[in-house]
Amino acid sequence: MKARGKGERTLYGDAGYYDHAYRRYRPDVDFYVGLARRTGGPVLELGVGTGRIALAIADAGVDVVGVDLSTAMLARASERLAKEPQRIRESITLLEGDMRSLHLGRRFPLVIAPFNALQHLYEDEDIDRALAGCRAHLAPRGLFAFDVLMPDMRAFARDPARFYRCRPTMHPRDGRRYAYAEAFSYDHARQVQTVTMRFTDLADPERVFFRTLTQRQFFPRELAMLVRCAGLSVVAHDGGFSGEPLDELTDSQVVIAARSRSSSR
Predict the structure, then answer these.
(1) Are 219 and 193 in contact (CB under 8 A)?
(2) Same domain, 116 and 88
(3) Quick one: which of 7, 211, 2 has its CA closest to 122?
(4) Exposure on the CB side of residue 93, measured as CA atoms within 13 A
(5) CA–CA separation, 158 vs 190, rounded Å?
(6) Do 109 and 56 share a domain, yes or no?
(7) CA–CA separation, 109 vs 42, rounded Å?
């Protein structure tokens, strides 16, 4: 696993743009807030990012401990948190940490890894260590919930040398509008996809910069096996946040797991 956001070139190193790009993404919010209300908290969130999910959970009256490896993302989360009412500020604790080696010395009724956080675990040993850490931080009847993208076979077959045009976007750093395009490269042996994002200033086409997003891909049966091998049992494995089936329409795999009763770990 690479330290996400350690370089400005990565999407996570550009926390301001990340926050702008995903500020309106809502499909997962009600799901995680509902789980937090059901379990009562506190919640351990792995990959807290800029706090999009954590703030919603805290607003629902549940305490959150948010962990992230990216200093840029945590700095942005702190900026957002500072603007919130006192009751929310006091409900969220932000920590810099690596989910592969996290030892908080406490257990939680709910551990979550939203918005594809586990897809930044690129090697098998990284996945094993992170899932073992999730289990270690679960209370005896606790739940571990996460989502990852369903692998997109069409994207894997795209020409990695070609950029595919998307809608123009604005970058909050300078308020300028940019032509936006993406290129896709897939490592079939490692099941790792890299998306290169190209930003071209519409007013000055020679002004171009890039961001990258690298994600491990998980196929459904492989994902279920990895969870079971970590001493967890799969409670639900759906194709969306409203319990949709896993089928050709699936964009996200949503998993809820619990401690396996048959495991001695």
Answers:
(1) no
(2) yes
(3) 2
(4) 9
(5) 17
(6) yes
(7) 7
Q: How many CB atoms lie within 10 A of CB 251?
A: 12
Q: Which two tokens stand for residue 220?
A: 């459904």
Cα separation, 120 vs 102, whole angstroms: 15
Distance CA 201, CA 193 (A): 26
Half-sphere exposure (Cβ direction) of 119: Cα atoms closer than 13 Å: 23
Is residue 131 in some structural domain? yes
Give the pLDDT band of residue 2 (cuts 50, 70, 90). Answer: very low
SS3 36: helix
User: Is the same domain home to 127 and 66?
Assistant: yes
Pair (24, 66) in one structural domain: yes
pLDDT (tens digit per residue) in 33-87: 999 999 998 999 999 999 999 999 999 999 999 999 999 999 999 999 999 999 9
> pTM above 0.90?
yes
Q: How many helices (H) and strands (E) does the chain have?
A: 8, 12
Looking at residue 225, its amino acid is M
Q: Taking residues 89-104, report their average pLDDT.
A: 98
Count of the separate structural domains present in the chain: 2
